[in-house]
Amino acid sequence: MKYLMFVCTDPEPDTDPTNEPDIHVWVADNDARGRRLQGSELAPASAATTVRVRRGELLLSDGPFAETQEVIVGFDLLECADLDEAVEVARAHPMARAGRLELRPLAGLRP
């Protein structure tokens, strides 16, 4: 099953530096196991453009759609047997401690 994992900042990160995971190790391990299909860090939220169409008119806004303290800073496309495996993959990601990760199954792509 494919999951999109949004990598987000969090205004209240874990402050315990004990056994902090290394992102390069996480990427290499999950790439080698075939669980990480694709992923990337994103440009800063200040580089975002929000696109809307209302009553046929194109509306463009600089910056992200929502003004929050949490910002999406990256993504990973995962291939996991089920949600439990996806949670274990996310749990080992460094941003599970420094930020937050949102897992969403891709609609319509279930086996």
UniProtKB/TrEMBL annotation:
State the Gene3D superfamilies in the record: Dimeric alpha+beta barrel
YCII-related domain: residues covered: 22-105
Instruction: Report the superkingdom from the record.
Output: Bacteria
Q: Which family does it belong to?
A: Belongs to the YciI family.
Q: What is this protein called?
A: YciI family protein
Q: Which organism is it from?
A: Actinomadura luzonensis
